[in-house]
Design brief:
The complex is a heterotrimer of chains A (about 475), B (about 270) and C (about 325).
Chain A (H helix, E strand, L loop, with lengths): L3 E10 L2 E11 L4 E5 L6 H9 L6 E9 L2 E2 L5 H5 L6 E4 L3 H4 L6 H12 L4 H14 L15 H13 L5 E5 L7 H16 L3 E6 L2 H7 L2 E6 L2 E7 H6 L4 H8 L20 E10 L2 E11 L4 E5 L6 H8 L7 E6 L8 E4 L13 H12 L6 H7 L16 H13 L5 E5 L7 H17 L3 E5 L3 H7 L2 E4 L19
Parallel strand pairs in A: 3-8, 3-9, 6-7, 7-8, 13-17, 13-18, 15-16, 16-17
Antiparallel strand pairs in A: 1-2, 1-4, 4-5, 9-10, 11-12, 11-14
Helix pairs in contact in A: 4-5, 4-6, 14-15
Chain B lengths: L8 H5 L3 H22 L31 H37 L1 H15 L3 H11 L4 H28 L2 H8 L4 H37 L11 H8 L7 H22 L5
Chain C lengths: L1 H32 L4 H10 L6 H10 L6 H13 L13 H36 L4 H14 L3 H15 L11 H31 L2 H8 L4 H39 L4 H11 L2 H29 L7
Helix pairs in contact in C: 1-4, 1-12, 2-3, 5-6, 5-8, 5-10, 5-12, 6-8, 7-8, 7-10, 8-10, 9-10, 10-11, 10-12, 11-12
The chains are: A alpha/beta (about 475), B mainly alpha (about 270), C mainly alpha (about 325).
Pfam family, one (chain A): ABC_tran
Protein name (chain A): Peptide/nickel transport system ATP-binding protein
InterPro entries (chain A): AAA+_ATPase, ABC_Ni/Peptide_Import, ABC_transporter-like_ATP-bd, ABC_transporter-like_CS, P-loop_NTPase
């Protein structure tokens, strides 16, 4: 029987407490989800339980696995538990796999060297795993040749091959789109169905909802709220819990109807086609966008959503078809918001310098800045900082400020909130929509989150039927000779 | 977000290597340029009555096998090495950086053409090229300088081209372009701040290599001719007198070591 | 698999062509820069001094169009090079090919011994330092590597001579013939190579040891030793071997100067002699051999990279 008891566990660096004393207990077959925004110290908890905290960090408290006190064990004794009784699923599977070893051998070696089977059995079990995960042709491939979803499955199989029942999953859906996220959740539930015990750490409310079981909400290293999943997610008691749940796009307030069918379009595209690397991204796309209209663009990753934006903004040329902008509108009034806000700013200059550059370049009226900053909730002190020293949400609002100063008629927003935590995402989207409506600026909003698009856009354009992320080479020829 | 640094304590306590390199270089510069003022002596004047003299008040570093003042010769040789190094680094860095930016930005035929020229230079170890160029005009300062600069520019070109290539398609540059900024602005605000650290590192490594190349040429007697005071040449000349006067031979060795060390520390980076 | 090798060999072959062209052009320019009767010197280089008279020199002059046009003379020069006509040494009168044949073996002995020594010293120390970052060994190796990198190989050689042959009297300073003669020159080259590859290994080891896949290998149940052998060694090896390609420049440059210091009868020594004596055919031959040796060693490094890094073998 697998059981895990954590009693007043805390993590600290020197004298600074990073995770406040924290307790829970988990019986065999149960499922517990720790929910909280990035940087809430959740991952440190997982590392403390495993015994893999980085040098300089120490854990206090008690961790009991099947009645054995883990904190009392020496490091070699603790290592003996890894894989065999306690499993840590890796965060980013692509990075968790040795880039120089084939997928099959990475599963094999766990059977051979961690579970202690003989070579012949290890080979057989690894093959069985691959077949049951639908990866029978991928065994001879290197991690770099696997898609994200495939790498995730290989890592799961490799991690679990030594037979442990207590599974810790640390942000298992980081950076995945919704379809792949659901796959991962299904795999985790499979673990439960097979008699495993599951501790999941995530920032994604949807993952917590699908897993069920019990939930604990963490913030700044403290547990704020705990209880059964339906209860916590239906009627959170804490203020933070309520905001976190309300920030889910599917719970956003419904958008107001908006239409200006009579106005001439700000941009029109006819029969656009584009191929990249010999693969057609999309063909014969036609669209027309009215002033102030908010249009969602959805589709699986790699289907050419960002490329479409480049064509519309004039950053690259279509293979066929043409883009027509409203006559008499300056090119600089077509602007873009980026997925990763820090990447869109010159990193070596303060925000003030960059704003002043913009004012000087276009002889703008500098007095417009303070009210706009107020409106966007940006404090003046931020001006003296470098882009890397402000939060992602603030920087994205700065990007919005920068664009708005040029009186844009269209904003291409490429996943503008996907790197932000849920509450910041909600605030940023609300501001973006409000300002766009007010200024009759059309927005094209790229997102992989269907609910977000449904709740913020007037209509949605689906790009799709794209092939998988990577062309699949045949197995036989990828064997090293 | 909680941030904490995991820098090992010894690393934080270690004095900054670049700073040490700078201090060392300044000391060498002072030695090389102040010596003629404080101890005016002709580095070429022989005094066969006072050969291989031990250090004294009038000759703080002793004399060589022809009775020439080691202090004056050493200072003169260091001036020569540093001067040549800085000159060739400068004349390699400026075209290297400009061509690298041009090739990385424009791509296409310009990129391919310049890439081919760079490949030609890199097909052989640089010192072989410098050797052959130096042999064309033996003993001439300019042939050393041209040879070294010709070999050095390629490094700047390649590094800058690669960095420019990846920056040109980066969101930060694209964003500024959409905001209506011109090429000069993009270079000043985006490219140069990213390139400058690598260019400075390359410059320091380049200076170190130039010092080494000149010494190597002098050592095998292809470079500058006697009676010029040059570090490699001095080693060759003094080698036969090692047993009589080891301190004299060790002087140019120490000078090369300190010069190269100061530039290496200034570069401030491990290979890779 | 074979496709990757073919592509690699073709690009290295192109490089060899570039080397030949560059050496040919530079030596051609060298002939033009020489004082005295060029035709006479070249004729002597071809046929040996005893067979040269005014007529022979005249024949060469007209054959190579030496008097007429520099461009056609250049074409002839490269044409000869293409056919492998390297001529005779102006100093010894021996055919250049024959001289090179003797020297190449010596240079290879020296270069390969140095590389093997460097690989025995550098990477093991570097990896140990990388696994114990911040400990005494790491600090000591940083200081030693910084110091050694600031010394050119011939200065290391000088210091080794002072220490081992003059002061201690253990090893011979110059010459060749016995294994003892190989030690000092090989070590002069190996120390500098080892210092750099130790730092490269150290940084690679540190990077690998803190990589998520290294941690994952242990959390899935492998012991630290097994993790090192199965996931550490090869991942460290890839950058170390790849960097060896960069270090070949140091090696070849070092061979030239170190051979001169130790009077080691290899190609580098001969190149320096030829340059000093203005022996143009020998300059061309030895520079060509040095350049091609560089290309050949680079090809070996490429093949080694291909062998240990499966990512370079596209399916």
């Amino acid at each position: 029987m697998t059981s895990l008891h954590v009693d007043r566990l805390s993590v600290s660096a020197n004298d600074q407490v990073l995770v406040a004393p924290f307790s829970f207990s988990l019986q065999a077959g149960q499922c517990l989800t720790l929910l909280g925004e990035t940087g809430a110290g959740k991952s440190l908890l997982a590392q403390a339980i495993m015994g893999t905290l980085p040098a300089g960090l120490t854990a206090q408290g008690q961790i009991t696995l099947d009645g054995e006190d883990l904190m009392a064990l020496t490091l070699p004794r603790r290592r003996a538990i890894w894989g065999r009784r306690l499993i840590l699923l890796p965060q980013e599977p692509w990075h968790a796999l040795d880039p120089l070893m084939t997928a099959e051998r990475q599963i094999q070696e766990t059977y051979r060297h961690a579970a202690g089977h003989d070579t012949e059995r290890a080979v057989r079990y690894a093959r069985q795993d691959l077949v049951s995960l639908g990866l029978d042709t991928a065994g001879a491939r290197l991690p770099g040749e696997l898609s994200g979803g495939m790498a995730q499955r290989v890592a799961f199989a490799a991690a679990r091959a030594a037979g442990g029942k207590m599974v810790i999953a640390d942000e298992p859906t980081k950076g995945l789109d919704s379809a792949r996220r659901d796959d991962v959740v299904a795999m985790l539930k499979q673990t439960l169905a097979e008699g495993g015990t599951l501790l999941t750490i995530t920032h994604d409310v949807e993952v917590a909802r699908q897993l069920g079981g019990r939930i604990m909400i963490l913030r700044n290293g403290d547990c704020i709220e705990a209880g059964p999943a339906d209860q916590v997610l239906q009627q959170p008691i804490s203020e933070y819990g309520r905001r976190l749940v309300a920030a889910e796009p599917s719970r956003w307030a419904p958008r107001r109807q908006y239409s200006r069918p009579d106005a001439p379009p700000v941009i029109e595209a006819t029969q656009l086609s584009k191929a990249r690397g010999g693969r057609t991204l999309f063909s014969e796309i036609s669209l027309s966008i009215a002033p102030g209209e908010i249009v969602g663009i959805s589709g699986p990753s790699g289907c050419g959503k960002s490329t479409l934006g480049d064509l519309l903004l004039g950053l690259s040329r279509p293979d066929r078809g043409q883009v027509r902008r409203a006559p008499g509108v300056a090119a600089r009034r077509f602007q873009k918001l980026y997925q990763d806000p820090p990447a869109a700013f010159a990193p070596h200059w303060t925000l003030d310098t960059l704003l002043k550059d913009l004012i000087r370049q276009h002889r703008l009226d500098a007095t417009r800045i303070p009210p706009l900053m107020d409106r966007l909730g940006l404090a003046n002190v931020l001006l003296d900082r470098y882009p890397s020293d402000v939060s992602g949400g603030e920087l994205q609002r700065f990007a919005l400020l920068r664009a708005l100063l040029l009186d844009p008629v269209m904003l291409f927003a490429d996943e503008p909130t996907s790197r932000l935590d849920p509450i910041t995402q909600q605030e940023t989207m609300a501001l973006l929509i409000e300002l766009a409506r007010e200024r009759e600026c059309a927005v094209m909003l790229v997102s992989h989150d269907e609910a977000l698009i449904r709740h913020s856009c007037d209509r949605c354009l689906s790009l799709g039927n794209a092939e998988p992320h990577r062309p699949v080479p045949s197995t036989a020829s990828s064997l090293p000779a | 977000m909680t941030t904490f640094t995991l820098t090992p304590r010894w690393l934080a306590r270690r004095p900054n290597a670049r700073y040490m390199g700078l201090v060392l270089l300044v000391l060498l510069l002072l030695f090389a340029w102040l010596t003629p003022w404080l101890f005016p002596a002709d580095p070429a004047r022989q005094n066969l009555l006072h050969t291989l003299a031990t250090p004294s008040l009038s000759e703080p570093l002793g004399t060589d096998h022809l009775g020439r003042s080691q202090l004056a010769r050493l200072a003169s040789a260091i001036r020569l090495s540093i001067g040549l190094a800085l000159l060739s680094v400068l004349s390699a860095a400026i075209p290297g950086v400009l061509l690298g930016v041009a090739a990385g930005w424009r791509g296409d035929w310009l990129d391919r053409g310049l890439g081919l020229v760079a490949d030609c230079v890199l097909a052989m170890p640089g010192l072989l090229l410098v050797f052959m160029l130096a042999a064309m005009a033996p003993g001439q300062f300019w042939s050393l300088y041209v040879g070294i600069a010709l070999v050095l520019w390629v490094e700047y070109f390649r590094v800058v081209r690669a960095a420019t290539r990846s920056l040109v398609t980066s969101p930060q540059l694209q964003a500024s372009r959409l905001l209506g900024f011109g090429k000069v602005y993009l270079f000043r605000r985006h490219l140069w701040p990213e390139l400058a650290p690598s260019v400075l590192t390359l410059a320091a490594f380049g200076a170190a290599n130039a010092v080494l190349a000149v010494a190597a040429l002098g050592f095998v007697s292809i470079g500058l001719r006697p009676p010029t005071a040059e570090l490699g040449l001095m080693m060759t000349e003094l080698l036969p007198y090692y047993q009589e006067a080891p301190w004299v031979l060790l002087q140019p060795i120490a000078a090369v070591f300190l010069l190269v060390l100061s530039f290496q520390l200034l570069a401030g980076r491990d290979p890779r | 698999m074979s496709q990757a090798i073919v592509r690699l060999l073709v690009s290295r072959l192109l490089q060899a062509g570039l080397v030949a062209w560059a050496v040919g052009t530079l030596t051609f320019l060298l002939t033009r820069a020489l004082p005295g009767d060029m035709a006479y010197r070249i004729a002597a280089g071809r046929y040996g001094y005893e067979n040269v008279d005014r007529d022979a020199a005249q024949a060469v002059a007209s054959e190579l169009n030496l008097d007429s046009h520099p461009l056609s003379a250049y074409a002839h020069w490269l044409g000869d090079l293409l056919q492998g006509k390297l001529g005779h040494s102006l100093v010894s009168g021996e055919p250049v090919w024959q001289e090179l044949g003797h020297q190449l073996g010596h240079s290879l002995d020296l270069a390969l011994t140095a590389v093997v020594l460097a690989l025995l010293i550098g990477p093991p120390l570097g990896m140990l330092a990388g696994l114990r970052r911040g400990k005494a060994l790491d600090k000591a190796s940083l200081v030693a590597a910084t110091g050694l990198r600031s010394l050119p190989p011939f200065v290391i050689g000088l210091l080794l001579i002072m220490l081992f042959s003059v002061t201690l009297g253990w090893l011979p300073a110059a010459g060749h013939g016995t294994a003892a003669h190989l030690w000092l020159p090989a070590l002069s080259l190996a120390l500098g190579l080892a210092a750099v590859s130790a730092r490269v290994s150290r940084n690679a080891m540190a990077r690998v040891a803190s990589a998520p896949f290294y941690a994952f290998a242990m959390t899935k149940g492998l012991s630290p030793q097994r993790t090192f052998w199965r996931h550490g060694l090869r991942n460290v090896g890839v950058p170390v071997v790849a960097y060896l390609g960069v270090q070949l420049i140091y090696l070849i440059e070092g061979v030239v100067v170190v051979e001169s210091l130790f009077a080691w009868p290899g190609i580098g020594h001969a190149l320096v002699h030829a340059l000093v004596a203005r022996d143009v055919p020998m300059v061309q031959g030895t520079a060509l051999a040095m350049g091609l040796l560089f290309v050949a060693l680079n090809t070996l490094v490429d093949l080694a990279c291909l062998a240990i890094d499966p990512r370079r073998r596209p399916a």
